[in-house]
Amino acid sequence: MVRALPTTLVTLDERRLLTGVYVVRLSLGIALAAAATFVRTTEPARGSHIPLVLAVVGIPLAFTLVSMLYARRRPIGRAFLYAQVLHDMLLVTLAVILTGGVQSEFALFYLLLIAAAGLLLGLGGGAVTAVITAGVYLTISYWQLAPSLARRSAAYNGLESRYEIRHADFRHATAIRDDERFDLVLGSPPYFPVGTGLEGDHPQKVACRFELRGDIGDYARVAAAHLAPGGVFACVFPEEQRARVEAAAAAASLAIVRRRPVVFREGEPPLVTLFAMTRISDLPDRVRGRTWVEPPLVIRTADGRVHPEYAAVKLAIGFPP
């Protein structure tokens, strides 16, 4: 007589499987802590790595101890097993994000996680884990798309040694060190508050147009905090919202020393304006509160050709006129 195959292997040797899961989990936590310590001690310091090390080792250790104590006193149910898989998925995801994203060697642990889920939860649980894992991995890939393209562009143009690409929220203290100062800060803040227009269906486009990750006030505040003496913060913003730029500059103790409207087609009103700001405290008293308004920069003439001045600007920065 042929016996049906079990849909799960939990009834076969669940505790031995869980022991293996515990060993791999703690090994991953220790490896991740070591990787985080090495990376953070070979890069410019942006704060202590001790809290991170404690988190990636302490949390898995605590969860494992609680799980072992629970399993010794109560029957092991599917909810318990799903909790184990979910925890380990979060741990692997943290490892992948902290060690290079989709290029991280820790990404291979996703395969091990799917295999363990299949053994513990059966074919259905393994399939669900595989689908969720694929979604998480694709999300990480998409999240890293912009910095990945920036690095490829830098490599293609031979500029890797001339600047550093940081993938972070500029509003967070870890993005820029407290002691970092710059002679020039450039920014292109999103123009519109959330909910004031059609946002579209492309996440990157939405974040470029709508204030999902900070507004002009955040840009001005962070720029002012990191300008070197006499440094300049330059940005572009809609002309019709000039009052918001002026308010943001005032709140950050910045003075708008120059602004230049940009006309996209000769004869039309300007749609955006270029602003140059510096700290008010760096200016002589006699020029504080003054803004030099330059003549509009015209992009195209009335007949659609590139305006001669704009052609000269493009040529000056290495683009065909």
List its traits.
Rossmann fold, 50% helix, 321 residues, alpha/beta, 2 domains, elongated, 6-stranded mixed beta sheet
Task: Name the CATH class of the largest domain.
Answer: Alpha Beta
Task: Tell me the radius of gyration.
Answer: 27 Å
**Kindly, what is the distance between the CA atoms of the first and last residues, rounded to a whole number of angstroms?**
82 Å
Query: Could you describe the largest sheet, including whether it forms a barrel?
Result: 6 strands, mixed
Overall outline: elongated
Number of helices: 9
In the CATH scheme, what's the topology name of the largest domain? Rossmann fold
Helicity, as a percent range:
40-55%
Number-wise, the strands total: 6
Tally of separate domains: 2
Oligomer: single chain
Instruction: Give the strand content.
Output: 5-15%
Structural class: alpha/beta
User: What is the element string, with H for helices and E for strands?
Assistant: HHHHHEHHEHEEEEH
CATH architecture identity of the largest domain: 3-Layer(aba) Sandwich
User: Runs with pLDDT <50, length 5+?
Assistant: 1-12, 40-48
CATH homologous superfamily placement of the largest domain: Vaccinia Virus protein VP39
Instruction: Give average pLDDT, whole number.
Output: 83
